[in-house]
Every structure is written in structure tokens, then in C-alpha cells.
Amino acid sequence: MAGKDANEITYDSMTGLKDRVTFFADVRRSAAAGQGRHMVLIQLTQLMRINRKHGATVGDGLLRAIAEYLRGVDPAYSAYRIANSRLTLLGPEDDRTRVEELTARIQKRFQEPWPIEDRGELHEVQAKAFVVHFPLKLRDTENDLVDKMNYAVSVFQDKAREGVLFFGEGLNEDMLHRRYVMEEVRYAVEQGTFQIYYQPIYDCGEGRFTSAESLVRLVTRDGAFLSPGEFIPMAEENGLIDGISWIVLEKVCRFLGGHPGLPIGTVSVNMTGQQILDSTFIRRIEENLEKYRLDGSRLRIEITERTVTDDFAEVRKVMECLALKGIHFYLDDFGTGYSNLSSVLALPFEVIKFDQSLIRMMVETDKGLKTIGLLAEIMHENDCSIVAEGVETEVQVRSAQERRLDRIQGFYYAKPMPEEDLMVFLENMRKNK
Ligand code: C2E
Ligand code: MG
Ligand code: MG
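Above: the input record for the complex with C2E. Below: its predicted structure, written as C-alpha cells.
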């Protein structure tokens, strides 16, 4: 900073701890001197909530109590506040046992409440913290370090982990891999290079394939294949999912528009529950239908229950509006742990897709078989059809039919395939009839 002494120590006014500028200056100084460091990150997770619930005075008091504790927690470690709810400790590299013991001790301390002495009262506040131990690499830049910290916090959040996290080589590799995947996805969104595979779905009543699901595929610039199971959840977190979905939707509309005589009635496209509430959603769908001269009745939209928002009234409006154009919705992945019946009952889904985990359960025990039968009855009562997902064996096919599941999707009948293969597949089916 202009006019500032590079060695000047600056402090966070709230806690009196050294601040972010000093933290990175200290890290750089260690690196320049060739000294490694152990760093402990303490990410507070409930500060906002505490501020909202008890007022900012309590939140500030809590921060000061935690700062006071960290300042005295180990004489070899300096404490910093580097962001609103992010505190760090920097200490010597030599003693690994010491830093491990220290990290565990901090984590344990956070299981107890903190006394807040402001306003002459004594509040006890339970604060949660993620505690991460990083052996600092001297070549890490400031950005590298911030990335690592953010990644460590996201690991805690994703996996709802407890305890202490050690940021070793494994986690570093995960982070780099994740960065690589996101760069490839970003590139593919810019260039529109995703490929679309189609998986035919067998209709048990009609005894033929009447629909298909579109599934996105990504081959990276260096020729590697990335699984959507891996990059879709990441893209959902990073906001890239929107770009992917519209590319897929456009490609599917182009394919369907170009093949009016395709012997399958509908193709479904996966979207997220948040997306359909976007104010441009309906218009963009209409634009695609017009552009490719496609009748909406050939298109279906799948959303996973995980992403359906609670705002049922708004979701319902969008569904009803698109239903007027013949576009109906499927509820995807029913039975994956997010499921409850509320969205099934509140929203006009045409189809409920029973996840592979339910289908497996169905053939494992009598109880499983009965439960699936009852669930199917409930869905049918609600005018929903059922697609059994992930069906791989003849036993599963028989159980699905016995329980009156309407359609079957799975490797037993067909794997997802590129459009040329789909055409050949459907043609062969027609000939063999
Ligand atoms: P999903 O929508 O539930 O799609 C079904 C997944 O099950 C597909 O995995 C499909 O290949 C796989 N599958 C089908 N039959 C079988 C089977 O018999 N056995 C097994 N083990 N698996 C089977 P895929 O293509 O890897 O996609 C994974 C997930 O990624 C999808 O699950 C969906 O949630 C997401 N996804 C894929 N394409 C898109 C897309 O275009 N947009 C969005 N938003 N998500 C997508
Ligand atoms: Mg799906
Ligand atoms: Mg599914």
C-alpha cells in the first residue's frame, strides 16, 4: 500500500487480532525466508444467525471472546482475523504433533458455549467452527491459499463433516481436479461442445419404446471423458448449470425438430428446480420450439426433488403454463433421500421417476416389494405415471411389471447413446416387431 511501511502490523479493530493484510504479509515473509508454516483455519459458521437472533452486540462479543481464546491458545501461534467469520493461526512448521493436538483442542473448545460479557450480561453462545490444518507450501500464492481455504470449507459443507480436516496432498489433488473440471465445463459452455446422449425408455403397457431421456456428455480438450454425475453437481454450485441446460435443450429441440417421424413420442431434458422459476424460462423454451418448428408435446422436463423449491405456488404456475403447450414435468430421482411426498402431492407431475436405489430395494426384500407397490398406488391415485430408473436385471424388470410401474429405463434395455445410434436402435426395434 502506498506510503505504508511493508513491515507495519495492522489490526482488526473489532477483535484486536492482526488483520488480513498482516496475515498475508507474514506468510510472504516466511516464504521469502524459506520457512514453512503450519496454519490453522477457523471458519465460524453461525455468526450471521447469531447476529440476527441475538443482535450484533452479542455477535461482536462472541467474536471478541473467541479472539481472546485464540490469542492465548498456544504461545508459538499468532492469531489473525482475515475475514468476517474467518480466523487463522500461524505457527512453526517443525512440530506436527503439536499442531494436530492444537487443532483438535480448538475444535473441542467450540463444542462448548462462549461467555459474552458485553452490556454487563453474561450470554452463553454456541458457535460452530470448521477447523482445518494446512501445512503451508511456500510456493502458494495468496490466491492459492484463499482457494484452498474456500475449498476446505466447501468440503465441510458438502459432506456435513464434523471434526478436524487436514489439508494434505489428497485434498490438494481433489481441489486441482475440481478446478480442471470447472475449466473444462466453462469452456464447453462457451463453445457449446457438449454432446447429447439419449436413453430409450420402455413402456410396459405398449410393449415398445415410447420416450427417451437426454443426458449430457462432456469430452475434455485433452480427450478425457467427464461424468455428468461429477460435473453437474459442481456446475449447480457454480451457476454454470444454466448454460449447460440451455445448450442441451437447444440440441434436443434441434434433433426432435429435424426428425418429426421419430418413433418415440417424447424426449425429456434435465433442468433444476431453481431454473424453472427464472423469469425468462418460459420465453426461452418457446423460442426454441419456434426456432426448430417443434411441437411442445414432444418435450418433457425432469427436475430432481432435491432442487424443487418450496415455492410450490410459483412452480405450479410455470408447470401449468407449459402444460398448455403440451410440455409436462417429471420428478426425477424419487427415493434418493431428499424425498418426501409434499412435492408429489402439491405439483402436477406427469411422471415420477423411481430412483435406482428404490428399484434395488424392490427386489431385495418382500418388504421392499410391498413398499414399492404401495408407493406406486399413491402415485397412480395422483394421476402420475412411474418410470423405474436404473433397471439392470430381468428380476427387476419382472418386479417392476408386477408392481405396475408404467415404464422402464435402464441398461437392461438400452444404455444412453448418441443420436445416430438411437436412430439405428429404434429402427431395429421397429423391424423386430
Ligand atoms: P438422471 O437424470 O437420474 O439420469 C439417469 C442416470 O442413470 C444417467 O446417468 C444414466 O446413464 C444412468 N443409468 C441409466 N440406466 C442405468 C442402469 O441401468 N444402471 C446404472 N447404474 N445407471 C443407469 P448419467 O448420464 O451419468 O447422468 C447422471 C446424472 O447427471 C443424471 O441423473 C442427471 O441428474 C445429471 N444430468 C445428466 N445430464 C444432464 C443434463 O443435461 N442437465 C442436467 N441438469 N443434469 C444432467
Ligand atoms: Mg433425469
Ligand atoms: Mg434420475
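Notes for the reader.
The domain at 20-167 is CATH 3.30.70.270 (Alpha-Beta Plaits).
The CA atoms of residues 360 and 394 lie 12 Å apart.
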